[in-house]
Design brief:
Helix content is 58%, strand content 3%. It contains 14 helices and 3 strands. The protein has a 3-stranded antiparallel β-sheet, with no helix packed on it. β1 (155-156) and β2 form a beta hairpin. The protein starts with a helix and ends with a helix.
Amino acid sequence: MSLHDDLDAYLIARRQLGFQLKTTEYLLRQFCDWLAERGSTEVFTIDQAVQWATQPLDARPVWWSQRLTAVRPFAAYLNAAGAQAPIIPKGLLPVRTTRCAPYIYSQSDLDRLLDGCSSFFRTVRVAATMRTLIGLLAATGLRIGEATRLRITDLDADQNVLTVHGTKRPLDRLVPIHPSTTAALLAYINLPERLATRPATDGPIFVNAAGTGFVIETIEQHFRALVDSLQLSVPGQRRPRLHDLRHTFATGHMVAAYTHGADPARTLGLLSTWLGHTAVENTYWYLSAVPELLAAAAQRLEPDIEQSETS
């Protein structure tokens, strides 16, 4: 068998365990093609893996690390199957991951994004798609991939509930939504410009000109262009992302818990379920880079500190 055949078997085995591996497949196919161009169709060495991973030479070290990280479990899989493949040490090309503070949208930012769709996008369908998507992400904290994969049958308009199909793991969940969100989704579903694309009655909620589902990259390109047109970007900082709407949703709920006397621990547990995290620890880590939340927590603690100092 060639390495390309081994890769196909590896991807099937991993996906049966619930992994998506979209980026991993892209990188590993590049790696196998690169090896084949050099005459290595069945085996490879650690040096070859590192040589491929450190391309391009002017890329950031974190990119090199990500490329080698894609190869490492594939090599271990081949080694366990008896192939002549190396075990790649974890210490090779190490990069400590640093977390950028997410952009927390203000209500004014959200209003500008929603209002700006109709004037920025040229067609009614695209404007309505982006406005509805942005509003849905802001109101529910869904991942963009979860939102674009929503189908008509996933919306229970009578109960105001969405069935959300997980992206990182095959774990579906029910997400309650406000009646106004249900109304906005129904208005979009019945939009004449959307219906003109002849979408399937049980197909995706959000559709392109062909009446089929959007790829995430297209939505993200539309959003980046909208953000730039509104000049939401802060000089010297990363451009606000669609995923930051998820951070904004989570942060807003936690800040409300701290400032309105609710139980932050209980709110965190509810958020973990709502966001589709498999453990509360994941949600805690997810929120740890948000300065607004740290400030709210500090304000909550101030009365206790003052009381202890005076007692």
